[in-house]
Design a protein that fits this description.
The structure holds 2 protein chains of 2 kinds.
Chain A lengths: L2 H21 L6 H27 L6 H17 L5 H32 L7 E5 L2 E5 L9 E4 L9 E5 L2 E4 L1 H4 L5 E3 L4 E2 L4 E2 L4 E5 L7 H10 L7 H32 L2 H13 L4 H20 L2 E3 L2 H8 L1 E7 H5 E12 L5 H11 L6 H9 L11 E7 L3 E6 L2 E6 L1 H6 L13 E7 L2 E12 L3 H10 L3 E5 L4 H11 L3 E3 L4 H14 L5 E6 L5 H6 L2 E5 L5 H6 L2 E3 L5 H37 L4 H19 L8
Parallel strand pairs in A: 11-18, 11-20, 18-19, 20-21, 21-22
Antiparallel strand pairs in A: 1-2, 1-3, 3-9, 4-7, 4-9, 5-6, 5-8, 10-22, 12-17, 13-14, 14-15, 15-16, 16-17
Helix pairs in contact in A: 1-2, 1-4, 2-3, 2-4, 3-4, 3-8, 4-9, 4-21, 7-8, 7-9, 8-20, 8-21, 9-20, 9-21, 10-20, 12-13, 15-20, 20-21
Chain B lengths: L1 E7 L3 H12 L6 E5 L4 E5 L5 H15 L4 E3 L1
Antiparallel strand pairs in B: 1-3, 1-4, 2-3
Helix pairs in contact in B: 1-2
The chains are: A alpha+beta, B alpha+beta.
């Protein structure tokens, strides 16, 4: 408890004790009124003060003012013998107890959310003249050398100079498998060094490092409000004046016809007591805040409540293929040697012919060949690259060709057989004879299939866009079970395709585009929700997207959707619950069934329950 | 220019009301007053930022006398 909260607690205890004491004193009439005035002032003086200041500033519909009017009114009624003064003390007591409760509950969840997101490094060990100085990360400049000991958090982005260690990235990505780093590797602030000592050269100032980017993003998420939040703001704007108007009408109209002025005045004061829309105003933003906090714990950064809300209604998800569903890394998927040729011979010839090229396909050929010592570039001479065809070279003196169908036709290779397998095919020839074909594929991510089926289980239509060939795209789509494929698209075509899909989506639903953040920024911003993945360390992706997945696991998308749905469910529960209870209170109050105490009790109760319900968003979705 | 400030607000409804009032302050481009994070994010033109901030703080204090800001 903070000092402020403790003070309120003492006031509550003192006022409650006094009220009980006065109850047993043999006093009545005007003396009783003055006696009750003491606990009333103890418990309510701050409300009265704020009410007074509110009036000075022209804030008529201030809940402090309304509480003051209600309780002072009840006191006056008590003095006139219509009811009792104790009522007004009790109302103030309940009100303060509720406020205290809520302030504790909100304080606690605020702490747990900020703890979740606490990836802020406290200090950096800067190496200066051979000794280590603990410095504020803010004051370390680019190029300085810092030392990170085991158990410490990486304070700034940098490059490892010395040492090797494993890093725990779970605070950033939600991923529990540690990442291995050694000299020459980039490291990202916010990770925790778990095993060895690392010497790191700083490459980015603190303000531009990953950790401060992420913190900024999550903290500023309150700028972008969800529709539900805006609804509450609007509602709050009209609710208080409406209730006050109701109170005035209740105090004046019925007694005109039926009489009983005092009774109706009492009922009208009950209205004022429940005029604060607090339950809604606190619990709805808290739900979104909790949802965003919980998601960031799993490595999903959501840039605003509006995106979290939109994600819950997503019915179409469009994926980019390369780097999103597939690893974006080429590897040999099959070797199809011609008759009388061994697999090793085929692969060795191809790898040697391509040994001077840095193209990813050539690299994958070299990687696939196990006996690396044989791949000496001395064995290769006369290398010639033929653009759009492939490579010709002399391997151990034999003329070799490695490339596409065009190259084979150009070299007039005998026994050439085109291959129909999806993927990129490299044909190999030696001495004018066909050696066989090698199929190179981008590998699917291990979780991609699960991710797609999870989304389909949530009745989401999945679409894949790619610049790759129809054949390759179809094969990937079939394997992963994707509903719809559009292949051979240029980046501009992707935007057009997404626009077309936007017109097809079911009404009131949203469309999300998932990409790796590289060269798909226009599509990311065109879609209702842009999701970038693998963003750890990529500024462009963090800028362009609405939701950022820190690692490159597509399964996080369905997790994000589950989190957003849970959050929205809680928001709706709270809205319905709070509005329902308020309406019931107003009705029962107007009918004179319940008094002021019951009304304030219900009002405060609903607020506390709504806050507790909202904190459920924090707990991660299993 | 966008800047973040630590603030102290006691009730959620006041924060909402302050935000509404602050948004109407002259030259404020965007402002968010969060009861949950106890932070205010203010966006205003660079050249008049300090003056705008002053106006915003005064407006907030009118709505809620207990409003505190750490500059």
């Amino acid at each position: 408890m903070t000092k402020k909260q403790k003070k309120v607690l003492y006031r509550i205890l003192a006022a409650a004790a006094l009220t009980v004491l006065i109850h047993f004193l043999p006093v009545s009439g005007i003396a009783l009124f003055f006696l009750y005035l003491v606990p009333y002032l103890i418990i309510g003086y701050d409300v009265l003060r704020k009410a007074f200041l509110g009036i000075l500033h022209g804030e008529v519909f201030d809940e402090n003012f309304l509480m003051a009017v209600a309780t002072v009114g009840a006191m006056a009624l008590g003095l006139l013998g219509e009811g009792s003064c104790v009522e007004s003390v009790e109302v103030m007591l309940f009100y303060q107890i509720g406020e205290l409760f809520q302030s504790c509950a909100v304080g606690k969840s605020r702490r747990s959310i900020t703890e979740l997101m606490d990836i802020r490094p406290d200090y950096a060990n800067v190496e200066k003249d051979g000794s280590l100085v603990q410095t504020d990360p803010d004051e370390v400049s680019v190029g300085e050398v810092i030392v990170i000991r085991p158990g410490e958090r990486v304070p700034l982005d940098g490059v490892v100079l010395e040492g090797s260690s494993s890093l725990n990235t779970s605070a950033l990505t939600g991923e529990s498998v540690p990442r291995q780093v050694g000299a020459g590797d980039d490291i990202i602030s916010g990770c925790v060094n778990t095993s060895g000592l690392l010497k790191v050269e700083v490459t980015k100032p603190y303000a531009q490092s990953t950790v401060s980017k992420i913190l900024d993003l999550v903290e500023n998420s309150s700028l972008k409000k969800a529709k539900a939040e805006n609804f509450i703001t609007k509602f709050a704007h009209y609710y208080t004046p409406a209730v006050c108007a109701g109170a005035v009408l209740l105090a004046v109209l019925p007694p005109l016809f039926m009489g009983g002025w005092m009774d109706w005045l009492g009922r009208a004061l009950t209205f004022l007591v429940i005029s604060c829309p607090c339950a809604l105003v606190i619990s709805i933003p808290l739900s979104f805040f909790g949802g965003i906090g919980g998601a960031s714990r799993s490595g999903i950064l959501v840039k605003g409540g509006n995106y979290l809300e939109a994600l819950a209604n997503t019915k179409t998800i469009v994926f980019d293929k390369t780097g999103t569903l597939t690893k974006g890394v080429f590897s040999v998927s099959s070797c199809l040697p011609a008759e009388g040729v061994s697999q090793t011979q085929l692969l060795e010839t191809a790898a040697l012919a391509e040994s001077y090229s840095s193209h990813p396909i050539s690299k994958s050929l070299r990687d696939a060949f196990e006996n690396k010592e044989l791949l000496s570039q001395d064995r290769v001479t006369d290398v010639e690259e033929i653009a759009g065809n492939g490579v010709t070279a002399k391997v151990d003196g034999h003329p070799v060709g490695a490339g596409n169908e065009k190259l084979m036709r150009r070299l007039a290779v005998s026994g050439f057989l085109p291959c129909q397998a999806p993927g990129t095919v490299v044909y190999v020839s030696c001495d004018g004879r066909f050696l066989g074909s090698i199929v190179i594929c981008d590998q699917e991510k291990p979780t991609a299939k699960q991710a797609i089926s999870d989304l389909q289980a949530q009745r989401v239509r999945t679409v894949m866009l790619t610049g790759d060939s129809q054949q390759t795209a179809d094969a990937v789509a079939k394997n992963l079970g994707i509903d719809e494929v559009h292949a051979q698209l240029l980046p501009a075509d992707k935007v057009a395709r997404v626009e077309q899909l936007l017109t097809q989506k079911p009404p009131r639903s949203t469309l999300a585009f998932v990409g790796d953040g590289i060269n798909d920024a226009p599509v990311l911003s065109r879609a209702d929700i842009g999701i970038a993945m693998g963003a750890m360390g990529s500024d462009a992706a963090i800028e362009a997207a609405d939701i950022v997945l820190m690692d490159d696991d597509p399964a996080k998308i369905s997790l994000a959707m589950r989190i957003s749905r849970k959050c929205l469910r809680i928001v709706k529960q709270n809205i319905a619950f709070a509005l329902g209870v308020k309406a019931a209170c107003l009705l029962l109050g107007a009918l004179g069934v319940t008094g002021m105490q019951a009304a304030i009790f219900a009002d405060v109760g609903v607020m506390v329950l709504a806050v507790l319900n909202a904190t459920r968003t924090l707990r991660s979705v299993s | 220019m966008q800047k973040k400030f630590k603030i102290e607000v006691d009730c959620a409804n006041c924060a909402a009301k302050m935000e509404e009032a602050a948004k109407k302050v002259d030259r404020v481009q965007n402002v968010s007053i969060s009861f949950l994070t106890q932070k205010m994010v203010l966006e205003a033109p660079d050249d008049t930022f300090d003056a705008v901030l002053k106006d915003v703080v005064r407006t907030c204090k009118r709505v809620e006398p207990d409003f505190e800001i750490c500059l």
